[in-house]
Amino acid sequence: MIGNDIVDLGDPRTFRLHPRFDSRVFTGCERERVEDHTDRWLLWACKEAAFKALNGIDPSVRFVPSEFEVQGGSVRWFQISLPVRVELGEGYVHAIAGCGKAQVARREGDRHEAVRALASRLMPDEDFSGKRPEGVSFSHHGRWVAVAFTEFRL
Predict the structure, then answer these.
(1) Is the pTM of this model over 0.90?
(2) Is residue 52 part of a domain?
(3) CATH code for the domain of 20
(4) pLDDT value at residue 95
(5) 50, 85, 108, 131: most buried by Cβ count inside 10 Å?
(6) Dist CA 32 CA 138 (whole Å)
(7) What is the β-pairing status of strands 136-141 and 2-8?
(8) CB neighbours of 152 closer than 8 A, spacing ≥ 6?
(9) What is the pLDDT of residues 21-47, one digit of tens each?
(10) Residue 43's closest CA among 59, 13, 61, 66?
(11) Which of 76, 30, 33 has the alpha carbon at shortest distance from 53?
């Protein structure tokens, strides 16, 4: 299982938030950790990556952000805890939940085509023209695309 999420920290939409965004999305402990723009989106990316990993196993899992709590190097969802790691790049934050490899690239052209092109470069033997293969996670936001994948897939 793997999930990933990328946030373009320069995207204007990341600055236009509902006044109650933090209280709806983050737990009390998480809100205490939000000191700036990067902190907010780092926590969000971890939650989203964990959701994608869990939803890949059980499609009935719904994304209710406040139910996913970032605790150090993991994200907890009820009784399940997933390892998560974060990459802070020049203008983006990228979170990977689960175990595997990942890569980020600057988007060129259509976001869907760009993320599939990146996946094809990383895994040339896979077919990304249709449904995404199991054990592969796509993410795109603003100027960035990212792919994460488990090394051992069926």
Answers:
(1) yes
(2) yes
(3) 3.90.470.20
(4) 98
(5) 50
(6) 30
(7) unpaired
(8) 135
(9) 999 999 999 999 999 999 999 999 999
(10) 66
(11) 76
Cα dihedral angle (17, 146, 54, 7), rounded to 10 degrees?
-10
| In contact, 87 and 46? CB cutoff 8 Å | no
* pLDDT confidence bin for 137, thresholds 50/70/90: very high
Domain that holds residue 120: 2-149
Q: Which two tokens stand for residue 102?
A: 């990942």
In a domain? residue 73: yes
**Residue 128 neighbours by CB distance under 10 Å:** 18
Residue written as token pair 């939000």: 34
Instruction: Please name which of 124, 151, 104, 154 lies closest in space to residue 2, comparing C-alpha atoms.
Output: 151
Domain-located, residue 154: no
Q: Is residue 145 part of a domain?
A: yes
23: amino acid identity, one letter = S
Distance separating alpha carbons of residues 65 and 88, to the nearest angstrom: 21
